[in-house]
Amino acid sequence: MSPDQVTRRNVLKSLTMGAVAGSVLRAIPLEAAEYAQRVIETERVRTSGYATKFFPAHQYKTLRMLCEIIIPADADSGGAIEAGAPEFIDLLTSENPDYQLKLGGGLMWLDSTCEDRYGKLFLDCTPQQQKEILDLIAYRNNAVTNESLSQGVEFFAFLRSFTADGFFTSKIGIAYLGYQGNTFLLEFPGCPPVPGL
Amino acid sequence: MPQLNPRKKVYDVCIIGSGAGGGTAAKVLTEGGLSVVMLEAGPRLNPEKDFKEHVWPYELSHRGVGVAGRGKGQFNDEFLAPNGFWDIEGEPYTTAPGTNFRWFRSRIEGGRTNHWGRIALRFGEADFRARSTDGMGDDWPITYQELAPYYDKVESYIGVFGSKENVPNSPDGVFQQPPPPRCTETIIKKACDHLNITCIPSRLAILTKPLNGRAACHYCAQCGRGCMTASNFSSSQVMIPPAQATGHFTMIANAMARELVSGKNGKVEAVTYIDKATRTENRVYAKAFVVAASACESARLLLNSRSADFPNGLANSSGVVGRYLSDSVGSSLAGYFPQLEKMPAHNHDGVGGMHMYMPWWRFGKKNEFLRGYHIEFGGGRGMPGVGEFDGVCKEHEGYGASLKQKCRSSYGTVIGFSGRGEMIPNDKSYCELDPNVVDRWGIPVLRFHWQWGENEMKMAEDMQETFRSIIETGGGTVLDFGRHGRPASSISVGGEIIHELGTVRMGNDPKTSALNSNCQAHDVKNLFVADAAPFVTNPDKNPTLSIMALSWRTSEYLLDQAKKGEL
Question: What range does the domain containing B353 cover?
């Protein structure tokens, strides 16, 4: 385990559990903590050495950040990055022109929209700005009231499912769900006793 | 009698296809002492190399959905036992304008028995007497009583679990002990009891006790991936090995049958096939031929075996080959059951299929439609796969911790229902040779015509209503997942349920059938068909068990003919 992970895990643990009394971290607002975590993650991209198959470096960095925002690490498990979701998405996208259009184009849409709104690319926006734009494209209803968001909403919905796929088919994602099968049993025990069943 | 080339080997029997029908014939015929050669259009099966049993999604770089994610939501994803395809490169089929049909084919030793759901249901007495019962369709030339001893033989040999229930027109069989129900099944059973819908242990060709050297199931729920311990039934692991052990069985793999060649005596004397590896044409000679290439492939082979004596194709003086094509009526609906959120984490796997099912429970009652359907259902805490949380993502939206937690609390709370009903054959649903298209081997391909009848549409509507009431009675909520059409619009595409059959049907009248009551061609004495092509009806019971029982019976008849010197 790298020192980064330890730090990150500790940060999050104390945040979600409110564990250590008097800890400075208890006072940090969630967004700031998320930001801190992203900084750590961004550091890891630089050192991970993964050679992307489809996404250019800048897009891949954005993709990774979005994946981790969609399925973040918490006290119970790591997040989408630890689960290898960005690599999985990159691999399939490199093979699928439809995905290339949806994600490659979607990431460009996100950057140009941030340019228009904030004069900066998504990665360079403040956490508040990032949250603002994501909150706009994370819900279908927003595109009903503001049609200019519809492409962004489509893009984000696609990436959300894709990220969930990457996370929940990973070792940590499966453990997080508590799936206990894929074993060899002599007898199948049936349904365990549950109150009310 | 023409002089035989002394170097030309003539087998007693040539079987085309190694699936449920071909495999059964191979076992019975070789054990009866005949020499058998079998053509298989795909490679030999190598479980060690081919099966993905116990593999986790994260052990595959594509997590199970394959290159470009094309297997997502597909039956034939990366985990499926090898070589089952909706589309085979270089081996197309076509559909008539305005019609839709899907054809799942296999190119592997064992055929589609490597992939099937292991649902092993006997047809009932009324299923063989359709016309006599309600005036539609036709009767079989054989009765349930005539086939029953062969159901006994097949079940005793392959191993089927189930329970004695005396459900009208859903006969009991020779059963091993069924496994206990999963939590999801306990909930649905309760709802069905309330609604007076019969819900009983399912009947699957999976061992719960060791049998003939095969180990009992180890409950990993992965039957569809292929089973290293051969605890479920596949022809490749259960029928072919005993044939092989006799010492007079030869399999020619990667051999695509092109044409059955008739001699001057009106009998078939050889089959011409393409060796896919060398792209060369070869011939195999035999005294008798058993065609078991799957209903539509068998029809295609006969239609492609045209000669001066048989201008409409072999065994087709009646013109029925390719006609009477049917598939099961399919319809599905899923429900969310909140009580499953409280379920503690536990091993829910069980066998690779449902432990309970609903046989047709309104037999003999007055219904809005003729015939009936059974219900299959499944869900719960299975191994997570790609697409698992598409519904949650769509519904919950947003992102972050709450999305992640919502996925976890929703995990295993969905139960899906599928109806499998009887289609009455109609004259708008059939296959024929496409006049313009050949496959990469130069063999003319099939063109499909398809139309559901009104009876099928009503049945699908009834399925939707039933699913809805089961879900609601069980305390669940119907999940629409964006389907807004009329209930009947959710009827399956023809062929999609992979129960296509009837294309070389049997009957007593040579004018309206291609085969007699022994599945022997009326026109060609040494030609037999042993897959689901001979079926006269397509009841609300999956066809595979009946394919095997009928093939066993046909093979015993053939053996008897051979002993009498009739071949």
Answer: 166-232+329-421+453-490
